[in-house]
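Box 3.1. Reading complex inputs
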Amino acid sequence: MMFVKKAMGTVCAAVMTVLVGQSPMPVQAADTVKIGSVLSLTGGAATLGDPELKTLQMYVEEANKTGGLLGRRIELVHYDDGSEPAKANGLIKRLLEDDKVDMLIGGTTTGASMAIYPLVEKAKIPFISLAGATVIAEPAKTWMFKISHHDRMVGEKVMADMKARGITSIGMLSDTSGYGQSARKEMQAVAQRLGVTIAVDETFNTKDTDVTAQLAKMKNNPAVKAIFVVSFGQGAIVATKNIAQLGITLPHYQAHGSASKEYIRLAGAAAEGVRLPAPALMVAAELPDNDPQKQISLDYAAAYEARYKTDLSPFGAYTRDAFFLWADAVKRAGGFDKAKVRDAIESTKGLAGTCGIVTMSAGDHLGLDVSAFKLVTVKNGAFVLAD
Amino acid sequence: MSSELLQFILSGVTLGATYTLAALGFSMIYNASGVINFAQGEFIMVGGMAASFLTAAGVPLPLACVLGVMVAGVIGWLIERFAIAPARDAEVASIIIITIGVSMIVRGFTEILLGKGAYALPHFSGEAPIALAGATILPQSLWVLAVCALIVAGLGLFFGRTRIGKGVLATSYNRLAAQLVGVDVRKVLTLSFVLSAAIGAVGGVLVTPIATVSFDTGVMLGLKGFVAATLGGLGSGPGAVFGGLFLGLIEALTAGYISSSYKDAVPFVLVFIVLVLRPQGLLGAKPTDRI
C-alpha cells in the first residue's frame, strides 16, 4: 500500500512537471480553434446523434486537409449525453471550463439544448442547436441558433397539401415521446388556424408492436379523410405497416422524421404513396440544376455514403448545415471572437444548405420558412417530389 | 360482434402473445432462483437483432432464426455463469440489481457492435393480411400465437414429465430440500437462464417482422413482460400466458374504447391494484408460511 502511494506520488509529480512545463504554450492554442459538441450518441436519441457526429467529424477532417479555417486547424471535442438532458448540462461545463472551446454545436434533443442554454448565455458563446422544437428559436435567444425546421412547419406543409386536395377532416396518430407530444400540440394549433378538423386524435408508444386498435377507429370514422402520423423511427414504421394491414386507402401523411431511406427500407411496400415534408436533400437529384441546394446536397450524400457505407440521414444533414453556418460566419467576421461570430451568424443572408436557404435576423434565429420543405411521396421505393 | 371490436381483440391478442413470451422468461427464472431477471427484455432484443443481422448477411431465414435464438441462449448461459453464479450467496435484491446492470451491458454491447438503427426480418409467410369478418390479422401474428402456444405446451410437458423439469419445480418449492434429494441446483439455475433467454429470443425473432428491432427494443417489452408475469402471478406458467394476453387485450381495448393516451397507464394501474388486493397475482398460488 505504501509502495503504491509512493509510486502514485511520483507519477503525479511527473505529470505535474510535464503539465507545468507545457503550460506556457500559447502558440499551439492560437493554431487551433475548438468546436465543442454534446450529442446523444447512446440512449433513446442515438439514431439521431450517431449521423450527427459522423457528419461533423467528416467535415472537420475535410476542412483540416485543406488548411483548416482562416489558417487555423479545427479541433473537435465531443461528449455523449446518453440522451439525458441533465448530463448534457454537466458536459457543457466541462467544454466551457476545461476544454475552453470557441463555439458549440449540439444538443441532439430539445431537452438537452434547453438545459444547457443558461450556461451558454452566461459564457457568451455561439451555440447552434440541432434539436427540433420551436421553443429553441422562438422567442430568439441571443446566443442560440437553430438549424432544423420548426415542428409547426411540418404541420403547415402537410395541411396545406391536404387542403389543396380538398381534405379538411383528418385522423392524427402521434407518439408519446417528448417529440411526439410537443409536435402534437403544434399540429393541433396549425389545424385550427388552417381550418382542418382533427376528427380522431390518437397516441401510441414508439415501442408499441401494434397500433391497429387506434387505426381501426380512424378507419371506421367516416369523418376521417386522411391519416397523419406524427412520429419517427420504429413507431412510424409500425404505424405505416398497420395502415397497410388494415387495408386503409385514405391519403397517408408522415412527419419529416420519416424522411430517411431506413423508413422506406423497413416499411417496404406499405410506404408506397405516403406523402411527407422532407428537406431538399432527400430529392436532390430531381431538383433543377440551377437550384443552389442541389449540388451541395448531392455532394453531402455522396461523401457521407462513401465514407460510412450507411444510409443518409436528415439528422446528419443538420450538422452539415450547422458546421457551414458557423464557418461562413467566421469568414465574414474575419476571426473567432465569440461576440463577432455570433453577430455574423445572426446576419447570415441567403446561405444555401441541405435543409434550406438560411436568412437570419435578430428576431429569427432559424432563418427558414415553410418553403424550405419539399413535399415528397414514396414511389417505387424512393422519395420523389409530390407536386 | 362488430368488426371494430374484433379488430381490437386481434390487435390485443397479437400484443399479448409477445408479452406472454417475455413473461414466461421472468417466471421461469423466478421459479428457479427467486430472482426477477431484468435482463429478460434484452434476450428478446438479442434474438431479433442477431437474426436480422444474419439474414442481412445472407444466411437463410429459418437458419438465421434458429441461430438468433441460440445466440441469446449462449448469452443467457454466460450471464448465469459470470454474473449470477458468483453472487449466488448474495441477497435476492442484490442479484436483481446485478440483472439490471447486465441488461445495460448487453444493450451497450449491442449498440456498439450492431449499431443504433432499426432492423427488420422478412415476414415468415407473406405480408398479405388475412381478412376475418371485417377485421384483419397478419400471418406473422398467427405465427406468434402458434409458437407461443407450442412453447407453453412444451414447457408443460417439460415440467410435468421430465426428470430435470421436475427438478426445476422442486427447486422452486424448496431449494434446500431439492438439493438434499439429489437435484443439481446449480444445473437447474443454468438451465433456467438458458431456457428463458431462448424463449425470450423466440419472441424477439417472431415479432421483429411486425415491429422491427433496435438495440433499445428490449426495455419496453421487458417491462411489459414483467407486468404480465406479475398480473398472472410470478412463477406460474398459466399465469404468464393469462397475464400476457390479458395485458395485450386491456391495452388494445383501452386504446379502442377509452383513449390511447391511457393505454400504457392502465396496465400499470392495474398491476398496482392486483398487487394490493392479491399479491400473489391473479393465478399465483397463495403463499403459505412455513413453520
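In summary: The first helix of chain B runs from residue 3 to 33.
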